[in-house]
Amino acid sequence: MTETVAGSAGATKRPSYWSIISKNFSSTVVDSIRTMGRAVRMLVLTLVSMVSDIARGRLQWKETLYQTWYMIGVTAFPGILIAIPFGIVISIQVGNIIHQLGADSLSGAAGGLAVIAQGAPIATGLLLAGAGASAIAADLGARTIREETDAMRVMGINPINRLVVPRLLAAWIVSPLLNLLIIGVGTIAGYLVAVGGQGVTPGAYWLSFGSFAHPIDVWISLVKSVIFGTIIAIIGCQRGLEAKGGSRGVADGVNATVVLSFVVIFAVNLLITQITTMFFPMQVG
């Protein structure tokens, strides 16, 4: 009898590493799709609630202004600190290559377009994700753990209207302003390096900048920053409202918010860049 039990136990096969990996991978993909679906659903509900609140005159303006001021406070100065070295590095690297080609007058075009088209919107998204979205996730996560959101629902208050809509509006307001700030500071920093350290004349710098940079480039940059602001606000709110498991759950939600925001921002930026390059090719004015 003992031998039979031992034999049957020995006959039981352990799952292979490949089956374990494939199972974990498939579950991860399914969870990611479900998370994306919940995020899209939250975005749709937020937009509908926003329109409804504006039409009824019930928009939480005080909370919106508070969130806007908070986001400006935590991103404006870091934005300047990022824009200065970014503009300098672009000017130095591009300037060295252009100088070897004997086209120093194109420094303004290369440096300015790099800041406007890529540097400013990406820096805006990363700053909002690191400072703004993490704070949103921590705040809403703490409220969820303390069951404040459940209490709101019991009192007939929709957390989407009260908590999510003001934060999305704040992200819409702050993202283009921060983007313009980074464009201005980064362009001026690149100009000072090109003129002061690389021997480019001010007239040649601004002439090439004006020949290649057009208002449509600035508008595309602003639209990208607003899209990135929407992404980080929705991800932060979703992770915060879905937090569970105490303070550890809040910390995990904040960490997931920052990581997901970074990944989605770079992926969406690649997609937008391909689309804009296709429909709005670079032209010399």
UniProtKB/TrEMBL annotation:
Domain of life: Bacteria
PANTHER family for this protein: ABC TRANSPORTER PERMEASE PROTEIN-RELATED, PROTEIN TRIGALACTOSYLDIACYLGLYCEROL 1, CHLOROPLASTIC
Keyword Nucleotide-binding in record: no
GO molecular function, one term: phospholipid transporter activity
The keyword Lipid metabolism belongs to this UniProt entry's keyword annotation: no
Database matches in InterPro entries: Permease_MalE
GO terms under cellular component: ATP-binding cassette (ABC) transporter complex
Keywords assigned: Membrane, Transmembrane, Transmembrane helix
Membrane-crossing segments per the record: 69-92, 112-138, 169-196, 216-237, 258-280
Name by which UniProt lists this protein: ABC transporter permease
Pfam families: MlaE
